[in-house]
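Reviewers of the previous submission asked for a worked example of the structure-prediction workflow described in the proposal, so we include one complete record here. The input consisted solely of the amino acid sequence. No template or homolog information was supplied to the procedure at any stage.
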Amino acid sequence: MNEVLKVISTRFSCRNFTDEPVAQEHLEAIAKAAVESPSAMNLQPWRIVAVTDRELLDEIDSAIMEGLKETDQNRYDRMVARGGKIFFGGTAVFFIPTKIDESNPYTNIDLGIVSQTIALAATSLGLGSLICGYSRHGFKGEKGKYFAKRLGFPPGYRLDLAVVVGHKGAEGSPHEPDMSKISYIA
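From that input alone, the workflow returned the following structure tokens.
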């Protein structure tokens, strides 16, 4: 099987990471892959902020849990049942702030592309990854402004998504592809 297709078919949402740090060369390779992602009209409406500071990640993780509890009790309870950590102990998180620009209707598509690129790059390096939409819950209000400043988000950018990366604590299974979603028209 082609190596790219193998990476795509074996990637899974990792929710069990070891505390082994991700090598700097891997962080740089993943970040470079991210900025090589395509975007509509090549606007690249995102920034890539790779964070490995454990204390900061734990602080953000707690704020996300607090924000989730305030906005969605069911999802909060689900995360508590899974251990109460949004980042599941991942040793690196790639935060992807995007430019707030109502004239660009493709920002969310571009965000999806860049997050998938990060996840696939991590998988190709033997690492686990988890695309984390819940991360936005820690970036609201005054606490959100504090984190945005701490992470160096440019003015006019907001966080909607992050990708957790780290060494897998256990192997997982990719989701079962639903082949009924495919149609061929000749």
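The chain has a mean pLDDT of 95. We consider this example representative of the routine output the project will generate in years two and three.
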